[in-house]
């Protein structure tokens, strides 16, 4: 891999070390161990990253493969949560996301207007949605009405909610829920819907009514 002698870097863990970049929609890494050798696959979103970031990632993978204590380094986390990383890689993520229509404008509802209502109410702050992207999905899923990629700060809302049968209040609740994940940020080693998240979620006025309306879909 460019700029990093992976074999030398991981010699204390494995005798033979190989690595390659792989292109997938989601950020990804994996490994295969055979005896004293390891082959690592690392997301191509990391291509061109600083040497110290890639070095930290390779060591982390080796430690995981050996069953040793491991964690994402601050250097790695600072890099993948930087605006530079997000803005450089999000277009690729979007191009690989076949379910996004790449627009916030629907036939009935507009997602940007939903976000603005949440901002105007004070329940969301500008910092929650900084450097973010929101789009309707192509598929009208009624079971998964929204998703969020915290790494690429992207929110997708199911087109099933772009309907006259869905109130602004219910739509705004779903948008709010996904934007709370943006507030959390990229936390690969933490629970997503933890107690703090639920406290934030339940700050939405009439959240129980919105949940009931979603169950009727």
Oligomer: single chain
Helix content estimate = 25-40%
Average of the residue pLDDT scores: 95
Distance between the termini: 49 Å
Q: State the total count of DSSP E strands.
A: 6
- Beta fraction of the residues? 5-15%
Uncertain stretches of 5 or more adjacent residues: none
Strand order of the largest sheet: 1-3-2
Count of individual helical segments: 8
Q: Please compute the radius of gyration using only Cα atoms.
A: 20 Å
What does it look like?
The model has no long low-confidence stretch (mean pLDDT 95). The chain has a three-stranded mixed beta sheet with strand order 1-3-2. The protein has a three-stranded mixed beta sheet with strand order 4-6-5, with helices on one face. 39% of the residues lie in helices and 15% in strands. It is an alpha/beta fold and 217 residues long. The longest helix is centred in the last third of the chain and has 17 residues, at 168-184.
């Amino acid at each position: 891999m460019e700029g990093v002698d992976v074999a030398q870097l991981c010699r204390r863990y494995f005798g033979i070390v190989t690595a390659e970049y792989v292109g997938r929609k989601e950020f990804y890494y994996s490994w295969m161990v055979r005896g004293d050798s390891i082959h690592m696959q690392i997301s191509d979103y990391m291509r061109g990253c600083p040497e110290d970031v890639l070095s930290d990632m390779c060591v982390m993978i080796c430690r995981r493969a050996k069953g040793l204590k491991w964690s994402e380094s601050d250097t790695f986390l600072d890099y993948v949560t930087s605006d530079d990383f997000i803005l450089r890689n999000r277009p690729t993520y979007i191009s690989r996301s076949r379910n996004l229509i790449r627009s916030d404008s629907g036939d009935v509802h507009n997602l940007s207007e939903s976000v603005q209502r949440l901002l105007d109410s004070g329940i969301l702050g500008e910092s929650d949605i900084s450097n973010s992207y929101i789009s309707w999905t192509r598929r009208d899923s009624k079971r998964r009405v929204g998703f969020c990629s915290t790494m690429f700060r992207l929110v997708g809302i199911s087109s099933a909610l772009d309907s006259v049968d869905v109130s602004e209040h219910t739509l705004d609740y779903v948008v709010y829920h996904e934007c709370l994940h943006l507030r959390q940020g990229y936390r690969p080693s933490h629970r997503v819907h933890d107690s703090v998240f639920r406290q934030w979620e339940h700050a939405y006025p009439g959240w129980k009514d919105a949940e009931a309306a979603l169950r009727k879909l």
